[in-house]
Amino acid sequence: MDNKPVTTCEPSAISKSRVVLAFLISPATTPLILCIFAGGALNKRSEWDFFICLLFTLSYGLPFAYLGELLLGFPAWLLFKHFKIRSVLAFLATGGIIGWLSLFLLGILNGTIHFFFHDLVASRLGLCPIVIGAVSAVLFRQVLFSPSFDLRVK
User: Fold this and answer.
1) How many domains does the chain have?
2) Mean pLDDT within 101-115
3) 120 contacts: CB under 8 Å, gap ≥ 6
4) CB–CB of 26/143 below 8 Å?
5) Exposure pattern of 115-142 as b/e (b: 16+ CB <10 Å)?
6) Is the residue at 152 inside a domain?
7) Which helix (H) or strand (E) element contains residue 20?
8) In the chain, % of residues over pLDDT 70
9) Rounded-to-integer distance, Cα 94 and Cα 110, Å
10) Residue 36 falls within a domain, yes or no?
11) Cβ contact 106:64 at 8 Å
């Protein structure tokens, strides 16, 4: 048996408070990214339009982000933890897939699945959930493994 010391960067050694913090912070990127992608649709009219977009997505986009994280992100984290996966590219790709899958499942639930592939190819807004998932997953990874997210009071 290997008696190698456990470092704080190993998935098995991460504190529960850091995992909870990562799950709370990572979906918070959703409103900002949605508004950046919608900026082209708003024709960059004014800062006020961006602020209204941000308030709207905080109200309606953020709950879906947390729901997607709970239903798809939590099982992904359990697999990553079990297999001790720490790769940025693995988190990035998995987050993008989770974002795409969330868009696909929402399309099934609201009956607009026939528009799904057309929107994904035809507009940058179709790529938005993939970018949101990827950015959220990388932020999740940074909160977990970065020493700069130290939770101890100094």
Assistant:
1) 1
2) 76
3) 103, 126, 127
4) yes
5) ebeeebeeeeebbbbbbbbbbbbbbbbb
6) no
7) helix 16-25
8) 75
9) 24
10) yes
11) yes
Tell whether 109 is covered by a domain: yes
Tokens of 89: 């590219």
Which residues form the domain of 83? 11-145
- State residue 7's pLDDT score: 45
- Considering only residues 70 and 114, tell me which one the structure prediction assigns the higher pLDDT: 70
Residue 1 lies in a domain: no
Write down how long the chain is: 154
pLDDT value at residue 95? 97
Q: Which residue has the tokens 């529960």?
A: 16
Hey, CA dihedral for 100, 92, 20, 38, is it positive or negative?
Answer: negative
Claim: this prediction has a pTM higher than 0.85: no
Segment 45-58 mean pLDDT = 81
